Task: inverse folding
């Protein structure tokens, strides 16, 4: 495996303290590599960046029309949400439409992200609906209801639902199913590792505004829902909401655990994805803003809106600047 390259460095005083290594790939919807840093074929687990593509069997099977799901619910299929009341209400709406109880969700329960991000202190009375992946899991179960598949074992890789997901993911990424490396995500759902460039191509296709040759309107419906309802895709003070609001309807973004993020431009038909090898969130977000800068996707207002995510200054508890977090990479444009 090629060695990842430095993307972000932290200094304290004038001394280097930390280096964050990784890779970047910039790809269009046709799969052409436009630019890169490090190895664009670096094998990465997609984690929650996979969610829009895990929703494809539901979309392709006519699930939204069958259950009467609005764009808000389509956004929840793709969400890593904070478990705020607006998120729980949408998940409950989805469950009601599918005739399901929240205890059927196989994602488990965790303290919702809105507590971690200081939206409120929370009550401690949480259930599966507060899990950040509950929208995705509700979509999984709704697909099973519609198609008469067993609800039991819906997360097993051999279940017909997960087999359908695997096939759709491979097609979206321009891969063969055998190319996808299976792993299990934190919510107990199957997840896949793939080349970074393949994940990027899938996002370039997701953001396309016209009908896709293989998936029809599914990509446009999902990406429109995400960009229209960024607060549902993530939550208050969260990354995906902030970036999609800055993108003013053009950007479709999704963060995954352990240092992966994808951003696509609907107007350009292009996307990029980043993997930070050590999983650092501040380094990931700083690198994402820098890629947007180097690609020329930022105007002054967007640059100002995303400045907190660049987090260039390292400050003490008193607010004094004591160091810097800086990008140390340049995108290498590919010759075609």
Result:
């Amino acid at each position: 495996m090629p060695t990842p390259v430095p993307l972000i460095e932290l200094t304290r005083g004038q001394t280097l303290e930390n280096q964050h290594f990784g890779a970047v790939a910039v790809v269009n919807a046709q799969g052409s590599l436009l630019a890169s840093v490090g190895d664009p074929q670096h094998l990465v687990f997609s984690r929650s960046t996979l969610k829009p593509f895990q929703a494809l069997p539901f979309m392709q099977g006519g699930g939204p029309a069958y259950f009467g799901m609005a764009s808000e619910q389509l956004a929840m299929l793709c969400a890593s949400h904070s478990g705020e009341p607006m998120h729980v209400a949408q998940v409950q709406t989805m469950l009601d439409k599918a005739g399901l109880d929240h205890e059927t969700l196989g994602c488990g329960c965790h303290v919702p992200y809105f507590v971690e991000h200081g939206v409120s202190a929370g009550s401690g009375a949480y259930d599966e609906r507060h899990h950040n992946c509950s929208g995705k899991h509700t979509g999984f179960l709704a697909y099973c209801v519609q198609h008469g598949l067993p609800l039991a074992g819906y997360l097993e890789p051999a279940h017909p639902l997960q087999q359908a997901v695997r096939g759709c993911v491979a097609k979206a990424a321009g891969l063969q199913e055998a190319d996808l490396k299976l792993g299990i995500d934190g919510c107990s759902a199957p997840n896949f590792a793939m080349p970074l460039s393949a994940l990027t191509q899938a996002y370039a296709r997701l953001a396309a505004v016209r009908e896709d040759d293989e998936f029809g309107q599914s990509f446009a419906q999902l990406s429109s829902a995400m960009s229209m309802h960024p607060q549902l895709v993530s939550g208050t003070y969260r990354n995906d909401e902030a970036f999609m609001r800055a993108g003013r309807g053009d950007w479709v973004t999704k963060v995954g655990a352990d240092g992966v993020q994808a951003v696509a431009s609907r107007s350009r038909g292009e996307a990029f994805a980043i993997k930070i090898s050590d999983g650092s969130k501040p380094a990931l977000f700083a690198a994402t803003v820098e890629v947007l800068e180097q690609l020329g996707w930022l105007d002054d207002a967007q640059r100002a809106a995303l400045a907190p995510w660049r987090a260039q200054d390292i400050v003490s508890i008193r607010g004094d600047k004591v160091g810097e977090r800086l990008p140390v990479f340049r995108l290498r444009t590919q010759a075609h």
The chain has 14 helices and twelve strands. The mean pLDDT is 96. Residues 106 and 137 are 7 Å apart (CA to CA).
